[in-house]
Amino acid sequence: ASNITKIACIGAGYVGGPTMAVIAKQCPHIKVTVVDINAQRIADWNQIDLDRLPVYEPGLPEVVAEARGRNLFFSTDVEGAIREAQMIFISVNTPTKTYGVGKGMAADLKYVELCARQIAEIATDDKIVVEKSTLPVRTAQAIRTILDAAATNGKDTQLATSRPKFAVLSNPEFLAEGTAINDLLYADRMLIGSEDNEDGKRAEQALADVYANWVPRERIVTTRIWSSELSKLTANAFLAQRISSINAISALCERTGADVDEVAHAIGMDSRIGPKFLKSSVGFGGSCFQKDILNLVYLCRHFNLPEVADYWEQVVKLNDYQKHRFAKQIIDTLFNTVSGKKIAFLGWAFKKDTNDTRESAAIYVADELLQDRAEIHVYDPKVTAEQIYGDLEYLQKHRRNDNPCTATQFSALSAVEIRSLVTVHDSPYEALKNAHATAILTEWDEFKGYDWQQIYNNMLKPAFIFDGRNILNRKEITSIGFELKSIGKG
Ligand code: NAD
Ligand code: UDX
């Protein structure tokens, strides 16, 4: 059994929070402390009202209720947690760089580097450092270099034998948001990459023992450290590639009269292809797919593999095309202008059952409609108005301009313009009242159960619905009188 009794996790975000909550739930004998420099986030994790945790995730409140205060703690005391722990997870954000070398492509490792420096600075005994964040291949080497160098820094080299020893492991996270608790409890696999030496193997065993408290041993996969790091980028690239592939076919379906859901069903029955991740949509979002593929592309260019880089970059370009196609269809259908027209958005999150909006297709579609001065009225069951305004404001500063299909002469909107054109509602019926069109951006289950007859009565005619998730029943909706435009239906 594991000799680990104290774990720290740096980064209390969408990954750090849920993963550590599940470790604490499944390992009552291990004290798990999750730390973050964002004091508000930590305060939110310590909320008595479990409906107000910073991450909305089905099943998470129950897990937190069970473990918090028992062996699960959320704190801003980063140093204290590092000092105490035998094993430290780094679960900080690794966004795409927005400046300097690799801008718009490479992963920004500054937060990870800071963690490594802080651990090196504070540690007085041996530590196992676990990369939980998604990182470019060979980052473990950089972390090791920092840990080793700083461990010597200013300390008496004569005491070399008493200096703390560090083991670095790669343990990428494969959870998907909206199903995180289930994904963690019943993981397809837990992947651990370790350095090829005795200390590495010992650390790998210690982490495997933690997971073995609930994950069957045969699902705990161990590899060399570079393979583990690269597996994470590859998994996300393959998953996103399936979506871009079916979305590419959706465009052809619309021209030819084929139905993309029928095509997906037919090909998915081939056991070699399989049915999952073939749902055509307005485009994938989320904090991972685009960032990780761009990071992979950057690595390929760095290692002078331009053909490989171009191959994967096309997955992101096709996704940009899909979002653009959806926005353009709205404008084209509404007689070539949406200026001054009320367009209702159902959904802002990047997928259902999460309050996360990072890279959500809704942001890009809204941005394009706002260029034409549409009046956008948004309803999302879990996303706040401030988040929505913040997303649009952020995009004005960080629009990627490398894609020919979206690099049209976009002009940046001011925060005031955004707030005058975009209204956020607490009620879907208010958002939809007197709208020229409805666009469905997220596949929230509740949208299907709305009183669509009432919505129709209160919309302007012709009443258009652009179903970016293909969730509505065509027969029902068109028999009410709606003009329904779906993805990939000719
Ligand atoms: P996040 O932004 O939700 O959380 C990261 C947290 O780290 C933030 O709260 C931030 O304040 C904190 N932080 C940053 N630097 C810090 C420091 N020096 N000390 C203490 N705290 C610090 O990010 P996330 O979605 O949880 O993602 C974290 C990592 O996991 C990323 O590398 C991501 O690629 C990877 N990942 C994410 C998902 C996902 O579904 N979100 C899935 C798998 C892997
Ligand atoms: C993804 C990976 O699935 C997960 O393993 C990894 O750890 C993090 O990145 P996540 O981004 O949380 O997880 O959600 P995911 O379910 O993969 O959906 C990503 C995007 O693709 C969403 O916008 C979703 O709506 C879209 N999607 C997904 C489709 O458009 N069609 C599909 O068939 C599946």
UniProtKB/TrEMBL annotation:
UDP-glucose/GDP-mannose dehydrogenase C-terminal domain boundaries: 344-474
Enzyme class: oxidoreductase
Positions of substrate binding: 173-177, 232-236, 272, 279-285, 350-351, 469
EC number(s) on file: 1.1.1.22
Keyword Oxidoreductase in record: yes
Pathway: Nucleotide-sugar biosynthesis; UDP-alpha-D-glucuronate biosynthesis; UDP-alpha-D-glucuronate from UDP-alpha-D-glucose: step 1/1
Pfam families registered for this protein in UniProt: UDPG_MGDP_dh, UDPG_MGDP_dh_C, UDPG_MGDP_dh_N
Keywords associated with the record: NAD, Oxidoreductase
Gene Ontology biological process: glycosaminoglycan biosynthetic process
Catalyzed reactions per annotation: UDP-alpha-D-glucose + 2 NAD(+) + H2O = UDP-alpha-D-glucuronate + 2 NADH + 3 H(+)
Positions annotated as active site in the UniProt record: 288 (nucleophile)
Residue numbers binding NAD(+): 11-16, 36, 41, 92-96, 133-134, 177, 288-291, 358
Role this protein plays: Catalyzes the conversion of UDP-glucose into UDP-glucuronate, one of the precursors of teichuronic acid.
PANTHER family given in the database record: UDP-GLUCOSE 6-DEHYDROGENASE, UDP-GLUCOSE DEHYDROGENASE/UDP-MANNAC DEHYDROGENASE
Family, similarity comment: Belongs to the UDP-glucose/GDP-mannose dehydrogenase family.
NCBIfam families: NDP-sugDHase
Protein name in the entry: UDP-glucose 6-dehydrogenase
